[in-house]
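Human: Can I borrow your eye for a moment on a structure tokenisation matter? Separate attempts, laid side by side, tell us more than any discussion would. Could you pick a protein and write out its sequence and tokenised fold? No explanation is needed for now; the record alone will do.

Assistant:
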Amino acid sequence: MKRFFSELQRRKVIKALVVYVGVIWLLLQVVSVLSGMLGLSKLVGTATFIALMCALPIVMYFSWHFDLSLNGITRTPPLPEQSATGDDENAPIKPLGAWSWIGLFAVVLISGAIGVQTYNTFEASVLEAEQAANQAIEKSDSIAVLPFKDDSSAQDQSYLATGLAEEITNQLGRTDLFKVSASRSSQVLVEKGLIPSEIGQRLGVQTLLTGSISSTNDRVSIRVELQDTASARVLWTETFVREFSNIFDLESEISRAVVNLLQDKFVEAGDLSKLSSTSDVDAYVLYLKGREAYRKQTAEAMQEARAYFEEAIAVDPEYAKAYVALADALASLSEGVDGFGVLAVDIAADLAEQNLEKALAREPDIPEIFAVKGVVLMLRDEYESALEAYDKAIALNPNLAIAYMWKSLALTTLQQYEEAIAAQRQSQKLDPLFLTSSYNLGVLLIWQAQYGEAEALFDQLRIDFPESAFSYIGAADLYYSQANFVESIRQWKKAVKLSPSNLEFERKMFDAMIMLGLTDIIKASTDDPGFDSTILIFEKKYSELFEKMDFEIAANPDDYWVAFEAGWYHSMFGDTNIAAELITNKEELISDLDKFYMPYCSPAIELAWAYQVKGNMDKSKMLIDECESLLNAQKENSITYSETNYLEARIFALRGESTKAASALETAIDKGWREWWTSYDPLLNAVNNEPKINTLIRFIEDDLAKQKEEAKRLFEDVN
């Protein structure tokens, strides 16, 4: 054995093997790069590897007999004792004999046979796996793209990894072939540490696209993997290496490959347009950094996102999607209900619209243009037009979850509740980990009295977002709707504890406390003037109340709602004629949408009462009939919470139908009606002689008194 290794060294076989192994490594690297660039089958790399490995015995055999050097190929001299003179240098070198050539032929034949057999076995296994994958893929109609892993050495390209996954999601979403889960939910679940199969199950998708990305200098390397959620089996994997400037082509190439795999349809190159493309890599990087800031959803981060988008546009003034993103950020910075309160509403709307027009002129088919346009129109109270914009966005991208959510908000404002719930369900289905979407759906379910489903949603929010107050405010609204004010206050206390700086949460808690008459605790807890009038009522300081309201009217002569509030207080605790005059005066200042706002149909129903007091029965009847029409429409939409039943009781009372009024009031109470002012409601005066009405009102008062004592203990426990 020692002599054999010595001979291997003398004949330079080991040196030849080392060189050959280096050549194998180099060739495999070249094949890997070319396969990614040209989209070649992975069998090419496998065949190359098998061929090179099968050639290894041939190289060894050849190097035993020949010396391979830069000077050429020469026969290896025999051992000294094998030569006639004993001198290997001067001994004649005989050519290979017949047996040596037969040996070489045998080595080639055996190596080739082994190589062919190995390749055939591997090819058969690949084809079998592909057939199994195709069978699974044929049934797949849903997918989620998980944020790609940042494989850069410095770990500083998360914006690129997440942004690329988001862009691929958008491209896939533009097809109407399958459900594409929103990027936001995928990112939340990845951050929670769930494995891909768990993420797929939670998102309700059958397939997942995962990947990793790294970029160096001007090149980017992306490895993608398509998985079956149920089996966790890899259905397809590929590595792409491209120039960074070609990343938009790569996005489309990956999206096209996924569509071709998942659907019984072949999508050709160019069928998935690159709506996010820009000619400048720097602009794209700035855009992705802006998107990363935007996803944080804070006022500071949104202003940072705005700056990034503006920089991207400065680098490439033709970058359409950067204009859309900037418009979105500007709308989000408005002082609207859902904005961050940085820009005045009209300024935010104007700036956003200007950028949308620039995007539209450059690339008219970007779905987000119309989604953001809908937001701008809502900022201007143009809700019907906003719905048209959202429908256009959804037509271009049926998987655009945010468009469904915004559409639901517009439909809710227009009191089209059935359609609003349907749109919100679709938004939550596509983006189940979007906190706001789940919360909004829960609120709408409360309105439909689907309390069990709403409670389950809020419970899941508490699990998914333990640091968020939204699950508690949702639960607080749920308990409030069921007239469980004690539990509602308890949930509000938890929300306030999580967000002590949010004064709106505290105000909502005080609203629940007002229902129970806990004015002493409110006075000790806040100096908010918004509660002054109600506190004066509970303290029966009516003269001070009316003086206060006279001052408010004088200070706000063109504000109908101030006059209405004063009239409402007079209707319960003051002069009926003054009340009727205040409520009807300047009615023309409010729109019909505001006048007939459901579920109370207020102030229209109070106007109907006021016109009865003034003797204008025709005007009163017209208002009552319109409220009844809206009430019936809500019943058809399954909107049957306590407020609608109380509205029905008031309508019957204004018509003098005491028996029907009592029945409707009883139904309202069964569904949670417990308003403290029910016994003072002037609209029920016409039926107060109905014994059942008085019995029901006493029930409300007794229940509120009982809950008041229980609620006091919530604050005593704290002290």
In short: Residues 2-134 form one domain.
